[in-house]
Amino acid sequence: MKIRVDRVKCEGHSRCYALAPELVDVDDLGNAFELNDGIVPVGLEERAQLMVDNCPEYAVEIVEG
Ligand code: SF4
């Protein structure tokens, strides 16, 4: 599984980081970016989906199942 953060849509709430700090980090403005090229380690798939479902800007997407 692989995720991607759309930096244009991201408004920097850091909600994704609160849910899954293993998968994303945030810059000084609170805007998120993917760790590890967006590759989701085995076992963290549900957390990735949680991030997708909880981003208020719909900025996180799963790009590879
Ligand atoms: S929850 Fe969405 S809008 Fe907020 S920082 Fe994460 S990707 Fe950006």
Describe the structure.
- There is one protein chain.
- This protein is of the alpha+beta class and 65 residues long.
- It has a single domain, classed as 2-Layer Sandwich (Alpha-Beta Plaits), CATH 3.30.70.
- Helices cover 23% and strands 23% of the residues.
- The chain contains 2 helices and 4 strands.
- The chain has helices spanning 15-19, 45-54, and strands at residues 2-5, 24-26, 32-34, 60-64.
- A two-stranded antiparallel sheet has the order 1-4. Strands 2-3 form a two-stranded antiparallel ribbon.
- Strand 2 and strand 3 form a beta hairpin.
- It starts with a strand and ends with a strand.
- Bound molecules: iron/sulfur cluster.
- The site of iron/sulfur cluster has 13 residues, from helix 1.
From the structure above, extract its key features.
alpha+beta; two-stranded antiparallel sheet; 2 helices; 4 strands; Alpha-Beta Plaits; globular; about 60 residues; binds iron/sulfur cluster
